[in-house]
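Quick review question:
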């Protein structure tokens, strides 16, 4: 669930968890991670306001608190339609709590983006920014929606403003880097990811994203080095080994590739990409049919896995 919290003192908005990751890394065609065919059946991503309960609440304040905590606009317990409707009702209620109104607009933006109504999402963020024009994360969120619309100039302008307001947020640079990547400027994208890594050296996301860019440039040594950093940060996750394994395949370093795919499969027994990788290495080191069983199992698990791997440049 996306989590969006506003704190009255200082007036800061924190975009936590999946929101920052999705906004920064989603392909241009998507903004929210939960998009589904039926909005009415889907659980909505939700922006959760800061707990409005004061240290010593008066009964009236407690009643307000209880009402907010039970409201689908803020508690995450509803479908996208329910959240959209609840947030619209809260906005129309005449509440004077700017923080909550901004959060309601943000939740509507997330809900609309999950249904791929990016124009609607931008309109909600426009209203949130009218209420709070100095909040950098609002520009960050609108930039992600503009990116989904492939309106890259406006997306970059919003990230520029977010960075102007808060230059210490690594996710801002990562989003700008992904926009540059969408535009085909890998060098500018890598420069942005350099800043993300500098600001957040303990986060694997920056290294992983930069490694993917190096792969696209066929700078496989640098890609492998970044995936090694990913593994150092998250050694118990299979993905880092899988990603580095494919770089070794591209380098034709099959022994190292096999080591990585084997480690990945120990961590995640049915990882389809690792199974294909192990099958490819077996076929290249032995008979062409030696890896058939692994590849067949992978396709049963994820029918599109081979097509995805081909997009990495693997033949």
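Suggested answer, residue by residue:
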């Amino acid at each position: 669930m996306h989590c969006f919290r506003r704190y009255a003192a200082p007036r800061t908005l924190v975009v936590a968890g999946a929101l920052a990751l999705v906004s920064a890394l989603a392909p241009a065609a998507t903004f929210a991670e939960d998009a589904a065919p039926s909005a009415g059946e889907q659980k909505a991503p939700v922006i959760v306001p800061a707990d409005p309960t004061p240290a010593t609440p008066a009964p009236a304040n407690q009643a307000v608190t209880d009402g907010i905590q039970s409201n689908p606009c803020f508690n995450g317990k509803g479908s996208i339609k329910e959240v959209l409707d609840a947030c619209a009702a809260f906005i129309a209620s005449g509440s004077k709590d700017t923080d909550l109104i901004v959060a309601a607009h943000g939740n509507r933006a997330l809900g609309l983006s999950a249904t791929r109504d990016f124009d609607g999402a931008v309109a909600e963020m426009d209203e949130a920014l009218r209420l709070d024009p100095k909040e950098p994360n609002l520009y960050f969120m609108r930039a992600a929606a503009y990116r989904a619309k492939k309106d890259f100039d406006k997306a970059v302008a919003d990230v520029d403003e977010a960075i102007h307001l808060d230059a210490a947020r690594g996710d801002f640079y990562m989003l700008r880097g992904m926009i540059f990547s969408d535009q085909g400027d890998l060098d500018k994208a890598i420069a942005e990811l350099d800043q993300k890594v500098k600001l957040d050296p303990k986060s694997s996301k920056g290294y992983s994203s930069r490694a993917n860019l190096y792969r696209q440039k066929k700078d496989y040594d640098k890609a492998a080095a970044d995936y090694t950093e990913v593994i150092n940060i998250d050694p118990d996750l299979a993905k880092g080994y899988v990603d580095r394994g494919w770089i070794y395949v591209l380098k034709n370093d099959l022994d190292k590739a096999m080591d990585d795919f084997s480690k990945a499969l120990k961590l995640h027994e049915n990882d389809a990409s690792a199974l294909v990788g192990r099958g490819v290495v077996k076929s290249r080191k032995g008979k062409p049919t030696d890896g058939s069983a692994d590849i067949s199992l992978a396709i049963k698990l994820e029918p599109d896995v081979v097509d995805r791997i081909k997009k990495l440049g693997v033949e």
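Why it works: DSSP finds 17 helices and two strands in the chain. Residues 240-315 form a domain with the Serine Threonine Protein Phosphatase 5, Tetratricopeptide repeat fold (CATH 1.25.40.10).
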